[in-house]
Design a protein that fits this description.
Number of strands: 2
Shape: elongated
Low-confidence stretches: 1-6
Length: 247
């Protein structure tokens, strides 16, 4: 059940099903959220098309298990719960990883920063840190905080990014989202077979639509110019999506 709250928001029975950036249009002003939100509708359409095959008893058992960790989930719509799960593991989680890796981590990131931030007015805090760096002064740190980093910090970040952030394809199994094969019976579940085929077409259609949308934000280059990275709303091509980062 969905209620219209205002022209920018919808009210659902649960604040997290579907995700907040689906329920509230304002969030989709953020380009990244607009990008991932576009894939929710085809996912929900597919789930809704095959929902008649879901056993009410199995759904009740699953719901009871989830309710121990997600308060109020019993009030959420079944289709939105399942669609949110699929959308989260196959679109959001993967794109969180890969956009961070491609557009930031590989070139710029170092997350291995050993010192908690405090105002530079906190002399006690910074004197304690600078005691381990006799070659530095507070003025030098203020002008260039990177002086507090070490080569090992960068190395650890690179290792983390390569192993846990970027996606390493399996040599023997196709884990891509577009490569998922649903085991529907073509004789007794023809409607579901058609829905699965249409699901893949709908995902590709969203991808193509995003390729034709203007770049949502311009990223400044090192020389101050605007590079427009990427050139459109297709931050990650759907052909790169995998069914789940977690498994």
């Amino acid at each position: 059940m969905v209620f219209l709250k205002d022209e920018d928001s919808l009210v659902f029975p649960h604040p997290h099903f579907p995700p907040s950036f689906i329920q509230h249009k304002k969030y989709r002003e953020i380009p990244y959220l607009a990008f991932i939100a576009a894939y929710y509708e085809p996912v929900r359409k597919f789930v809704n098309s095959v929902s008649h095959l879901i056993s009410p008893e199995e759904w009740k058992n699953m719901l009871n298990a989830m309710a121990r960790h997600v308060p109020g989930i019993e009030q959420a719509d079944m289709v939105d719960v399942i669609a949110t799960f699929i959308h989260t593991v196959a679109v959001v989680h993967y794109c969180d990883h890969i956009t961070f890796a491609r557009y930031f981590a590989v070139k710029y990131a170092c997350m291995e920063f050993r010192y908690p931030y405090e105002s530079f007015d906190n002399e006690e805090h910074w004197n304690e840190i600078l005691a381990d760096h006799p070659q530095l002064t507070l003025d030098k740190v203020i002008n260039n905080p990177a002086l507090l980093m070490k080569k090992i910090n960068v190395t650890r970040t690179r290792i983390f990014a390569n192993i846990f952030v970027d996606y390493i394809p399996d040599l023997f199994h196709d884990l891509s989202l577009l490569g998922v094969k649903y085991d529907f019976d073509s004789n007794t579940e023809e409607r579901a077979v058609k829905a699965a085929n249409q699901f893949m077409k709908d995902l590709i259609a969203v991808d193509q639509s995003q390729k034709n949308q203007e770049a949502p934000a311009l990223i400044p280059g090192r020389d101050g110019s605007k590079t427009g990275l990427p050139q459109n709303l297709q931050l990650i091509p759907v052909q790169d999506f995998i069914a789940s980062v977690c498994f």
